[in-house]
Write a structure and sequence with these properties.
α1 crosses α7. By secondary structure, the protein is α/β, with parallel strands linked by helices.
Length: 233
């Protein structure tokens, strides 16, 4: 039987790799979509290519857009990435690593590709528990975008597509995400989570994303293979 197609937003990080594995395990043929958007951690795209290949994506497209034109984020402007913040600090406010409207932009591209593929399913790795306070990672945001998406396309208006945005990680802790990925055979050694990696992709170990990743692996009772790959970070 032909598997239904699903567009999966794939950054090359831990969460999106897990979501790609989940989409495949649920019987979809995943079509991975990544973005070169002017991010300082562009190394993640090398990881995204490896993840897509490792997990058998039906296709992997990298779209070029330039969010550095707008700036406003430590990931797209000459602003230092915060380091060594406590978990308490991370739990309050929206950090400077927030990229304005990024998930809305990415989901809009995914919506366009899904319509051309004849797909009614988009998977995204947003998380509302162990995350850094981003407003576009909340359940109410995903629900609102899904409602809008079904009003925005010819396929939706003509009734040939009822789009569903799947956010399977949204209520999971990072430890639960890691356990799920390991269960599904995700190779986390080929992922990249760091906001400010070195020239060879080595994680800084101090940014919010690195700290949340380390916390997740510790709570999952599993060793992060990136530590073995690059040494202590």
């Amino acid at each position: 039987m032909t598997r239904p197609k699903a567009v999966v937003l794939l950054s090359g990080g831990l969460d999106s790799a897990t979501v790609l594995a989940i989409a495949k395990a649920e019987g979809y043929e995943p079509y991975a979509l990544s973005f070169r958007y002017g991010q300082r951690h562009v190394f993640e795209l090398e990881r995204a290519r490896e993840v897509a290949r490792s997990l058998g994506a039906g296709a992997h497209v990298v779209v070029d857009i330039d969010l550095r034109r707008f700036g406003g984020s430590a990931l797209t402007a000459d602003i230092d990435v915060p380091k060594d913040r406590s978990m308490d600090e991370m739990s309050h406010g929206i950090p400077i690593t927030y990229v304005p409207a990024r998930n809305t932009i990415f989901l809009s591209f995914a919506l366009a590709w899904a319509e051309t593929l004849g797909s009614s399913d988009i998977f995204v790795g947003v998380n509302a528990l162990d995350y850094s306070g981003y407003p576009d990672c909340r359940p109410e945001y995903i629900a609102a975008f899904e409602r809008m998406a079904n009003l925005a396309t010819r396929a939706g208006v003509e009734g040939t597509q009822h789009l569903k945005i799947h956010a399977p990680l949204i209520t999971m802790t990072k430890a639960q995400i890691i356990r799920k990925g390991l269960e599904l055979g995700v190779d986390y050694a080929i992922t990249s989570s760091c906001y400010d990696p070195g020239t060879q992709g080595e994680p800084c170990g101090k940014c919010d994303s690195c700290q949340l990743r380390a916390k997740g692996f510790a709570e999952a009772g599993s060793a992060d293979p990136l530590v073995h790959r690059f040494g202590s970070v």
